[in-house]
Amino acid sequence: MPKRYLPDWSDLDKRPLPEWYDRAKVGIFLHWGVFSVPSFGSEWFWNNLESMNIKYIEFMKKNYPPGYTYQDFAHMFTAEFFDPDEWADLFNKSGAKYVVLTSKHHEGYTLFPSKRSFSWNAVDIGPHRDLVKDLADAVREKAMKFGVYHSLFEWYNPIYKEDKFKLFETQNFPKTKLWPDLQQLVNDYNPSVIWADGDWEALDTYWNSTAILAWLYNDSPVKDEIVVNDRWGIGINCHHGDFFNCVDRYNPGKLQPHKWENAFTLDKVSWGYRRNMILNEVMTIKEVLRELVSTVSCGGNVLINVGPTKEGTISPIFQERLLSLGDWLNINGEAIYNTSPWIYQNDTLENENVWYTCTKLQYNAQSPTAVPGPNETVNAVYAIFLKWPENNILWKIVNGSTELSLPDYASVTSQHAWSLKLTHK
């Protein structure tokens, strides 16, 4: 009989990580919502406006009529060019194995027909379509996993504001809004990932987080493959969850004892789309590959964010970066997918641009980031180097060590990073 998990962190932490997530390594993150309409500053546009940030006040005065509110932007969130099949094809070509969409950001607007968010969802106002369902269907058609980001709180929801005013001694918002929304998402769309956020104002006891996770693990339709992150209340991040995010753009550069994820955005300034983005604010493919390789070597996954436009398109510069990533993974993916950390993560003594992964005969669900033990069989070790060495020599240690010579740089296909496969004879 399958184990049932108690609504207690010490018991929830015993759940083995579903194997698909550790093997996947690469995911796509999508920040899309009403904030995509002004597409200025960041996805925190509404909060910055209400906080009387002068930059946002002047932007509104200059570009919109007097009395124009943030809610008025929802009519302009049209998504008329949104083709979920095109998106899924792009993400598949990028080499991603899972896709995570913002079902609801802090603004409270849902991309699905929330039964608790009347007239503030994508079916009632804006594109008049269930964007979560449309993308979920297309992503799965390409054999990728689908997940949802969901903000626990909502900046200006009056029920949440009342709980906050009462110092979270009441739980009306989680009971009447958060819980029903999460259950609707899980029951209607069967996500493989729940990526929580917006947790930092209250303790996990207010959010009833352990009960939510116990339901997910025990009784939900996705109990066998669901994975969740660590943003479930004050002090929970980097301590509990199937994988840890810890902070945005988290990349510690060393092996971690728990499965983790590096969520970063191609636009270095914002997670949502910005019309005034300039080229040098976009990550180069070399920067993307450095994040990918160093993260996977240290036991993590990468979740690469792009912000779509209000019309439902993905900027050509983002497309180019994702397709370049896919080209690299077509050649070097064996050193990334299905791998585990090796005994060493990078070659700090000889060449700091070399990172290692390995493949093992056995999968360690209880400790997927652990280095190979003495009783485990390592099938191959991969050395991934991010800079082509001088004189085509990767390693050269004088006393008794092997010199490894590479072919001429002009003869290799990859342009930005390269992999070597090392096996027993």
UniProtKB/TrEMBL annotation:
InterPro entries: FUC_metazoa-typ (IPR016286), GH (IPR017853), Glyco_hydro_29 (IPR000933), Glyco_hydro_29_N (IPR057739). The keyword Manganese does not apply. GO terms for cellular component: lysosome. GO terms for molecular function: alpha-L-fucosidase activity. It is an enzyme of class 3 (hydrolase). Keywords: Glycoprotein, Glycosidase, Hydrolase, Signal. Pfam families: Alpha_L_fucos. It comes from the Eukaryota. Its EC number is 3.2.1.51. GO terms for biological process: fucose metabolic process; glycoside catabolic process. Residues 3-334 form the Glycoside hydrolase family 29 N-terminal domain. Belongs to the glycosyl hydrolase 29 family. Alpha-L-fucosidase is responsible for hydrolyzing the alpha-1,6-linked fucose joined to the reducing-end N-acetylglucosamine of the carbohydrate moieties of glycoproteins. This is Putative alpha-L-fucosidase. It comes from Eumeta variegata (Bagworm moth). The gene is Fuca.
